[in-house]
Design a protein that fits this description.
The chain has helices at about 15-25, 30-35, 40-45, 90-100, 120-130, 150-155, 175, 185-195, 220-230, 260-270, 290-295; strands spanning about 30, 50-55, 55-60, 70, 105-110, 135-140, 160-165, 205-215, 235-240, 275-280. The protein has about 300 residues and is an alpha/beta fold.
Length: about 300
Amino acid sequence: MRLPDWVKTAYPSSSVLELKKLLRKDGLHTVCEEARCPNMGRCFSRPSAAFMIMGAVCTRNCGFCSVESRLDESGPGSSGLDGPNPDEPLRLAAAARAMGLRYVVITSVTRDDLADGGAGHFANCIKALKSEIPGVKVEVLTPDFGGSRSALEAVLAAGPDVFNHNVETVPRLYQVVRPQADYERSLRMLEWASEGLGPASGPGIPVKSGLMLGLGETAEEVMEVMEDLRASGCLMLTIGQYLRPSRKSLPVFEYIRPERFDELRVAALSMGFKSVASGPLVRSSMNAEEYYRHV
């Protein structure tokens, strides 16, 4: 299908290249680059970025993603990937400080090869940012840690200001879109986070999740997922259009018109979500600070 006008974006190359140089100097990755986000030019020019920790190779093989994959089928330690770099938290904090960031989003590849799924490294990155940049706000967008409650507690104990975990799509499509994930497991992680696990998090930390449209879901399925997310304790929701990042990725089933995203935003607010970003180019970490302020 031809790309409709409402999902076309400009790409200011000068600002992108400048920020890329800074990131490469510190050996850092961003999900903006690895996932080929259409908003990268706009966000990098601000500057703003969602840092991707623990390398750029994932142990899962989601159909919507362009990140390099190396499946881990034999348990922790079997993928051959290096462990998290202990210097990364301080390098991350230094880069965020150099960029003048007051709100930092941290995400990661999924690391099923690690005993804790990388939860301890998430915690170290949060602590480094809080220590090196007084007053900084930190949002984490985590994998499901294999459903480990203790791993989630380790992340929340470090004191993030927002916890985000995306369900991505409707349950019926998981086998194709997220074959190593589990919808109910993701909902359980969100529910645990909304309960306020860990001494530093406390109840009330905003919990966030996101959906991609255009993969073949029905309108009824989308509404059901939104209801499930609200029931799990989510206060923040992002809804965007799936755009095929590479030829290896799943094709787009449908381009959703902007007015449909507007309708979903109204419906989500009526369900009790406090902050909703819904639009063709909306991505999970896009304008994250602005939507945090709503909550």
